[in-house]
Amino acid sequence: ARDALATAMHGVWGAFWIGYGVYYLLIAVGVLPTVADPTASSALGFWFVVLAAITWMGTLAAAADNVALTGTLLFLAAGSTLLAIALLGGFPVVQAIAGYILILSALLAWYLASAMMVQATFKRFALPIGKRHAQGSAALPSEAT
């Protein structure tokens, strides 16, 4: 609530996954071709162009919040960019590299979510996320970047 960055990232990626699910539903009923088809692969590549562009801007915005979120979005944006290149250009090696980068993003997201849950539960910082504080406020000693 009231977090423009979270709203943008969850909104665009949530919409992508809903669209991706509908796409596979349409494949299952025989209406659309699979990603193995070059036309479908290119279309999916364009989805990742948009996801990458928005996620790169989210990465820039996250730099004002915390290091862990910035890293998560950085790897997500890089993986999305490489997936767009791989799907549009037909480069399977680049697609595999993108997959590994997206796994790194998922691991960072897991760490960040874990840190946020522990902080909310114990009412203190337990796992560092590199939280940036507004000017004039003192950083907690356990939250130094």
Describe this structure in words.
The protein has helices spanning 4-28, 38-62, 67-89, 92-122. The protein has 145 residues and is mainly α. The longest helix has 31 residues, at 92-122. It is elongated, with a radius of gyration of 18 Å. The two termini are 26 Å apart.
Q: What are the SSEs and their pairings?
A:
Layout lengths: L3 H25 L9 H25 L4 H23 L2 H31 L23
Write a brief structural summary:
This protein has helices at residues 4-28, 38-62, 67-89, 92-122. With 145 residues, it is an all-alpha fold.
Q: Runs with pLDDT <50, length 5+?
A: 135-141
Shape: elongated
One letter per element, helices H and strands E, the order comes to HHHH
The level of helicity is over 70%
Structural class: mainly alpha
| Cα-to-Cα separation, first versus last residue | 26 Å
Strand content: under 5%
Radius of gyration: 18 Å
Average the pLDDT over all residues and give the rounded result.
90
Number of strands: 0
Strand count, sense and closure of the main sheet? none
DSSP summary: helix tally: 4
